[in-house]
Amino acid sequence: MESDGCSSDIHISSQEDIINLNCSCDDAHNDQIYITNFTGELDYPHCSNLQTIDIRGSPGLKKISFPDLNRLGELLIHDATELENISLPYLYPNSPGYIDPYFDLLGAPNLKNVTFGDITVFSELNLASRHIYEYSFSNITSITALVVCYDYHFENLRSVVTLQIAGNYNQYFEMLRMFSNITSLQTLTLTDVGGNIYFGNSLLVNNSLIIENCYSNVIGYLPIYDIKKIDSVGSDLRASNNTVTELNFRQLTTVSGDISIYNNTNCTLNLNQLSDVASLSLVDNVNTTLPWFPRLQRASNIHIRGYIDTSPGPNIFPALTAVSGNVTIEAWNDDFNCSKLVDQYQSGLIHNLACNGTNNITETNTGSSPGNTSPELSQGAWAGIGVGIGVFVIGTVTGMVWLLLRLKRWKNELIERIRQREALQEHHRNSLEMNHEPPNLNLLLESDGTGIIREKPDDHLREAGGRAIIAEHPDDHIRELPVPPAELEGAPNAGRRT
User: Residue 356 belongs to what domain range?
Assistant: First the structure.
């Protein structure tokens, strides 16, 4: 390495590089040290402030020591498979304005002894070593994101946002006080865990809980995951692909999201305190008895497929008040009885139900939920009532249409009869008036140019002294006739003049 200056990026491959380095890491620098192809022990004195220590490709590196280092932003270790000791004895807690340190030790599987000085707060801490017994992380009180290989003790750790426990550990008796003071966190993930996990207090998981690929490495031993102390989950709970694992959620009351427990083998499961969940899905869990839910009240959907515990009888949801979606029960055991679920369906507690056990709903004709109707009526009865109502409505409508058409026809016939009767009366009246109808004077013509006087009836004549006297009429009965038209040929001569 060149020694004629000190750049912000320092590359070290051997202890000689450190000796020949003509610079120191102090508060005036924001240096980054990159360590590659290093073997043996690394000792870097006179360095008080570093942004990054990055170790890569150094499988032969056995020890790291920065005896004067006060502040460090990142410690990243990759492929240091023989690294056993990290000594940073005088690290100070970060002052306000500094970012909390991020330590990634996942590439040091044989790390046994770590000294971090007085650091109490980490932004991220990734630990993958299996056998760090010499150092207890008793100073750490807060970690934003913690990845740990389950055999560390965090006696005073109280605040964790994201906790991931992962590893491949065979021993199961070293973790009695692992997380004794944590009371809440955002996300908890257990992956490839083979040993016990303990929490000292009741725990609130404000986001998600994930348990996957966990198993027992000890023959005849069932590992204990202290998830029984979890009271609530703010989002989803997922447990999948676990083998010989105790999924004991005996204090869990509320899951705001979905519960999905699937593809587990030979596991024990307890959800006795669960009261509220968005959706509940327990499917394809081999050699695992699915529990009943004595306190479950509300869910959006329920899907259960597997061997169901029949010891409590057919009432596996005795406290149920509402399932707004579907309830699907696919029992692997033939003795499961669906009768209580059918009762809850018929009383409207379950919106839709499909159950393949005995006394199931398919034997009583499936249909839409009758809501608040009486559960004493069978589905066949309700179907008959529905058909009867439909026939009644159709018959009523048909009858009304026929009656309206018939009334219209009667009305037309009645009008026609009235018209015929009026015509007959008119004809009869005309026939009676024919003998008394006065002649139409407009049709009378004079041949001699004079008008024609209509002859009065005999009842207007009276005799006086043997001669006929024409009775006088009042003046208002006398009217002048118009001047007759010219005499027409062939017109009769009435022989009378006015």
Answer: 304-381
The DSSP bridge partners found for residue 166 are 191
Q: What is the pLDDT of residues 304-362, one digit of tens each?
A: 999 999 888 889 999 999 999 999 999 999 889 999 999 999 999 999 999 998 887 54
Please check whether residue 327 lies inside any domain of the structure: yes
Residue 340 domain-assigned?
yes
Q: Is residue 319 part of a domain?
A: yes
CA dihedral 142, 143, 147, 148 (to 10 degrees): -20
344 located within any domain: yes
Sign of the C-alpha dihedral computed for residues 391, 392, 396 and 402 taken in this order: positive
Contacts of 171 (CB under 8 A, 6+ apart): 151, 195
Rounded CA-CA distance 247/260 in Å is: 12
> Which contacts qualify for 17-24: CB closer than 8 Å, 24 or more apart?
18/42, 18/43, 18/44, 24/48
Overall number of domains in the chain: 1
Closest Cα to residue 33, out of 5, 12, 60? 12
The number of beta carbons lying within 10 Å of the beta carbon of residue 244 is 21
3-class state of residue 398 by DSSP: helix
3-state secondary structure of 496: coil
What residues does 63 pair with on adjacent strands?
Answer: 41, 85
φ, ψ of residue 461 to 5 degrees: the values are -105, 145
Residues 185 and 203 sit within 8 Å (Cβ to Cβ):
yes
Confidence at 364, pLDDT banded by 50, 70, 90: very low
